[in-house]
Design brief:
The chain has 7 helices and no strands. By secondary structure, it is mainly alpha-helical. Helix 1 packs antiparallel against helix 2, helix 3 crosses helix 4 and helix 4 runs antiparallel to helix 5. The relative contact order is 0.17.
Length: about 170
């Protein structure tokens, strides 16, 4: 049973890494579940501190995943229309089956939102949309780094308990 949990936990780690590139998908949450599955094995003693701190980090990253693209829009001079456009574009970009919709959606959403707010100032609208895109990239990078840290932690825990697991 330990080997099955180990394989499932590792699979969650890999899925979490891939999902970290897609906005609004729970890459770090899936990786945290991989850590949790590792601790369900009989060979690994449960460490509630590691699980608790990792859970708090996962929750914070999940919240920031929705906040950072909007903040990027605002930082680059966007209005509330651009922020709403970013969020709506993010959802639509994930749902609509176009290539790289998850990247294009927030950018186009912020651009459209800003053009609705002020149709004459195209430069400001484009700047706000670029801020949305940069925020999205920053958010994805942050999730990827956390997932890679969880993978490293997973390997470290397996290495420390290899005699009991194998």
């Amino acid at each position: 049973m330990d080997i099955i949990l180990l394989i499932l936990g590792f699979s969650c780690m890999i899925i979490g890494i891939f999902w970290s590139f897609l906005p609004a998908l729970p890459g770090p949450s899936i990786s945290w579940i991989g850590l949790l599955l590792l601790y369900f094995t009989n060979a690994v003693p449960t460490n509630y501190w590691i699980l608790g701190i990792a859970l708090l980090i996962t929750i914070a990253i999940s919240v920031l995943d929705y906040v950072i693209p909007s903040r990027g829009t605002k930082k680059f001079g966007g209005s509330s229309y651009g922020i709403w456009g970013t969020n709506i574009g993010l959802v639509i970009g994930i749902i609509v089956p176009i290539p790289f919709g998850f990247l294009i959606g927030p950018f186009v959403g912020a651009l459209v939102g800003e053009l609705i707010y002020d149709s004459k100032n195209h430069k400001r609208a484009l700047k706000a949309a670029a801020g949305s895109f940069i925020g999205l990239l920053a958010s994805s990078f942050m999730k990827f780094v956390i997932c890679m840290m969880y993978l490293g932690l997973f390997f470290w825990i397996v290495w420390e308990n290899k005699s009991e697991l194998f």
